[in-house]
Amino acid sequence: MTHKFSPYFFLIITGMMLFFSCRKDNLISHDKDITLAFSNDSVIFDTVFTSIGTITKRLMVYNKSNKRINISNIQLNGGSASVFKMNVDGISGSSVSDVELAANDSLFILLKATIDPSDENNPFVVEDDIHFLTNGNEQSVKLVAWGQNAHYILADQKVGNFPEFKIVADSNETVHWTADKPYVVYGYALINSYGTLIIDAGAKIHFHNGSGLWAWVDGVLKVQGTLENPVVFQGDRLDPDYRNIPGQWDRIWLMEGRAGFNHEIDHAIIRNGYIGLQVESFLRATSNQLTISNTVIENHSGMGLFTRLFAIDASNMAIANCGSYTAAFTMGGAYRIRHSTFANRWSYGVRNTPAVFFNNFALDSLDNPIPLPLNIEFGNTVFYGSSEDELGRQLVAGADSNYKFDHCLLRLKDNWKNEAAFINCILNEDPLFRDYDAFNFEPDTLSPVIGKGKAEIGFEIPFDLNGVARSNPPDIGAYQFVPKTGEK
After folding, report:
1. N vs C: which end of the chain shows fewer Cβ within 10 Å?
2. What confidence tens digit (pLDDT) does each residue in 437-474 have?
3. What are the percentages of helix, strand and coil residues in the chain, rounded to 5?
């Protein structure tokens, strides 16, 4: 039998093809409420490279909607100059356009980081972002890789509202950080209860943005720098433009401990954070103390030293140029500060606080004061800065509160002048530091602090922060005057 072609058959086939090609799940949705989901919100290349690194990782991208979508653009923000390279479902490039993704489907992106870890011009942490544009919605995934050989501490735990952390010294464990390579902290490095972290002379600790070092309750920190090889804490940006930029990292955070297990910091430089050093009683009143000596804390966007109901014995400590207090001793406590310098000429904005502040109370849930004992004494110490009043206090009745300033130079208003707590002090005279802008707080030739310190305190601390022998009587402050060439 001979079959003839029927035009009706052609129309039926064509109609069926149109029907199936126009099914709902093949249409591109422009719904602006549809967003992408990712296997990770960041991709971290956490391998410590020993040679030029070419590490590949995978990122999954999900369309969890019931509609087909078009991803208008996927691109590396760093473009072709980025150390990261990507391949989107087989297509390589720093930018890929018009990638369709079916309903409840996924695609994978292969990512590679190529870095020479021996290149000391690299930053420690190299970052970029993959940017996604879908129906007008912008999303991004952060890319992070290590740029130099170093010890990298990457946070891997999160508890409640505390910041992310990695335990670097666990309970009943003593860990040494040495000077062999820098340490780069991404998140918080945590010393657990009954753990001890000892940081050796010459070690360099670099913190990424928002990162810090944290001694949990009954954890112990011991920083053992020397005059020739101090321990340096600072941000991880090495560019010259970041040399004196505050706020690059968060803080060193020390909590209470057991009697006889003191935190110790000797010969350290703590620079360019938000709070240089925070020490506090967190779960109970502390039974230990912080002993800090020969240490510079400078250029923090918040405070240099912040305490809550703690005990500190400090000598040869210089705290300078902070956005708020150089030091705030709060909620009572016991403090002995000798041969130290508090200097605040903050230049990055308006400062409405004195250089140094103390109080003797905490606040309850209704903001009512709870009196707490305070004993704070300063000897041979400088309090100076660009404000009219560089010393502040708030005291309430109900707790033993004692303070003393013995052979100090202070800038403060008249209402403090006649108090018996000020013993042989110099008031409202410029200490004539050598160079505020260069963070040099040594006294200059005509400084009024020269030879005006208390001899007994000088005998107890015979060398200054630079290792210079003190005179008799000594100079006030952390630094002894040393004549330069041509000076007398």
Report:
1. N
2. 889 999 999 999 999 999 999 999 999 999 999 999 99
3. 5, 45, 45
CB 334, CB 305: distance < 8 Å: no
Which of the listed residues 119, 146, 173 is the one where a domain comes to its end?
A: 146
Residues of the domain holding 436? 151-460
Preceding peptide of 448 cis, ω within 30°: no
Please give the pLDDT value at position 121: 83
Mean pLDDT for the stretch of residues 290-306:
98
Would you list the DSSP string of 410-477? E---GGGTT-TTEES-EES----EEETTTTEEEE-TT-TTTT-S-HHHHHHS-B-TTSPBP-SSPPSS
Q: Give the containing element (helix H, strand E) for 264.
A: strand 263-271
Asked if 251 and 336 sit in the same domain, the reply is yes
Please report which residue ranges of 51-150 form alpha helices under DSSP H.
Answer: none
**CB within 8 Å of 83: residues ≥ 6 apart:** 113, 114, 115, 126, 128, 145, 147
- Integer Cα distance of 299 and 306 in angstroms: 14
In a domain, 485, yes or no: no
- Is residue 79 domain-shared with residue 156, that is, in the same domain? no
In which residue are the tokens 């653009």 written?
Answer: 73
Are 53 and 47 contacting, i.e. CB atoms less than 8 angstroms apart? yes
Give just the sign of the alpha carbon dihedral 17, 23, 25, 26: positive
186/73 Cα distance (integer angstroms): 30
Rounded Cα distance between 210 and 479, Å, is 32
pTM above 0.85, yes or no: yes
CA distance 407 to 271: 28
Report how far residue 450's alpha carbon sits from residue 436's, in angstroms, rounded to the nearest whole number. Answer: 18
- Please give the structure tokens belonging to residue 314: 């400090």
Q: What angle do CA 127, 160, 368 make, to 5 degrees?
A: 115
Nearest to 110, CA basis, from 163, 64, 162, 56: 56
Q: pLDDT at residue 178 above 90?
A: yes
Q: Tell me the C-alpha distance between 213 and 195, whole Å.
A: 14
Opening angle at CA 158, ends 154 and 164, nearest 5 = 45
- Residues 382 and 350 placed together within one structural domain of the fold: yes
Given a cut of 90, whether residue 413 has pLDDT beyond it is: no
Contact predicate 312/279, CB 8 Å: yes
pLDDT, the chain, mean: 92
